Ribonuclease inhibitor
Amino acid sequence: MLWFPPPGVRARCCSYPAQRSWMCSASMEDVEDSPPYSPTYEELVEVITLAMVVLNINCPAKREDVHPKRLCTQIFREEFGWYQGKVFCFVHLSIQEHLAALYVYLFCANNNRNVFDEVNRRSLLSKLKDWFQLNSSEHVSLSELHQRAVNEALQSKNGHLDLFLQFLLGLSVNTNQILLQPLMKQTRSRSESNKETVEYIKKKIRTTRSPEKFINLFYCQNELGDHSLVEEIKYYLKSGTIKEAKLSSSQWSAVAFVLLTSEEELYMFDLKTFVVGNIKAENMLVFQKLLPVIKESRSVHLSDCGLTDEGYAALASALRSNPSHLRQLDLSWNKLGSSGVTLLCAALKNPCCKLQILWLWEYGVTDEGCAALASLLRSKPSHLSELVLSWNNLRDLGMKLLCTGLEDPHCKLEKLWLRDCGVTDKGCAALASALRSNPSNLRHLNLSENNLGSSEVQLLFDLKDDPHYKLQELYYCEYIFI
């Protein structure tokens, strides 16, 4: 049995930065004193209508428009602040999205009308109520409704209609149709409409560039019971032939969906697992399609893949995502240079980013890149514990710039690789000075294949005897000194 507040409770639409929730003013005494109550069809229509109103952020309900008589308190919670008195809102946004989908479906099935063709801002709530009572002489197919809903969801910039779309499509399958019979005034053929919708979604998957959008489209296909493309991709993954499969854009989207919905943990992602050779255009296509997988992985290897400026921007977005799962990143041999390093370091400074290991072998890092890396090491908090810069032409100036980060107390670096970086005695002296000024966490230092004099190297060996210094391994020439 559902509990509803007594008649006269007033609802209002409230705006939040990230979402809109429908709220109604009421006192707790009103709720506690109300008897058990079963909603009528009209009252259910009122609730699902309001859910549709506030889901559409472009058509907010005005306070004077909303006057529900009774309201199910089991799907609402009490909140305080910002408004006078106590208010109620949906306990979870997904409940609101499900009720909105139910409204749109019943609006079409019972009244032969497409809500997306009729809603506008003016007197929105009253129009929706009136339309729910009216039938249209024109036939509106479920396929037309689905396609319009798909387009609306794809046009949404913040994805606020994604889950709503899944709910709407799920209401069209046979099992849910049985449950909806008490609310249905008429029945109509669904199988052909669903087939048309599946084909329309496949078409959109082929043309949609946003990773988040096409992933949601695959969830929509699942709701309609179409698993053909997903099953095909599972075969390629299990057989190990995915590199030779020459997949289309939509098939790569399916790869991302399969990996994200797998029960196995996404620990390591290596782009070379999916591509053959070093064709930049092909690599970037696969990279863009599998970006949602990269966001969920802990270790990502993108070495020698021809990463472009657009690719770096997408990767920076992944590093700033909340939560960020990435802990290890290999970008070696991409040679984008200091511009790529600067963009990367800006993303790594984001509070959401928790990257610990960064490999930049032969990356084209110059003085500007060293300055950006030093700024990253000085940032608070700094999570980076391992940095590989081997085979970059840093020279002494780059080494001195990097040392401004190493000498900072916020630096948490434990391993530093500087093999064949063009460092001479001056750079080595600056490094020794930086490490002495900050008894840091550095335990492993590789300076192999640099033109260093014995006196400067001795400065580093002397630090090993310092009880405040933690250096355990020092590589010089081709030997290791412990």
Residues 8 and 376 are 58 Å apart (CA to CA). Confidence is low (pLDDT under 50) at residues 1-32, 57-70, 120-124. The chain has 19 helices and 13 strands.
